[in-house]
Design goal:
alpha+beta, Macrophage Migration Inhibitory Factor, two-stranded antiparallel ribbon, elongated
């Protein structure tokens, strides 16, 4: 039984976006392993508080991530 864990910074993604992630990640496992995997694929989203996740020595916040999304 696959377990897919996704770590996100709090306050970046909406509830709707998280539901979409769960659905699409499940669909991806089904594409790889077949329809029988749908009922046994677990997707877990874990949110990390802002400022407790860093890249390149910088602690990230939700506003920083939103700014990155706008720039891309």
């Amino acid at each position: 039984m696959p377990l897919v864990t996704v770590h996100l910074i709090e306050n970046v993604f909406t509830e709707e976006e998280k539901v979409e992630m769960i659905s699409k990640l499940t669909d991806t496992m089904v594409e790889i392993e077949g329809e029988a995997m749908r009922q046994v694929t677990w997707v877990k989203i874990e949110e990390v508080p802002e400022g407790q996740w860093g890249i390149g020595g910088t602690a990230l916040t939700a506003p920083m991530i939103h700014q990155m999304k706008k720039a891309s």
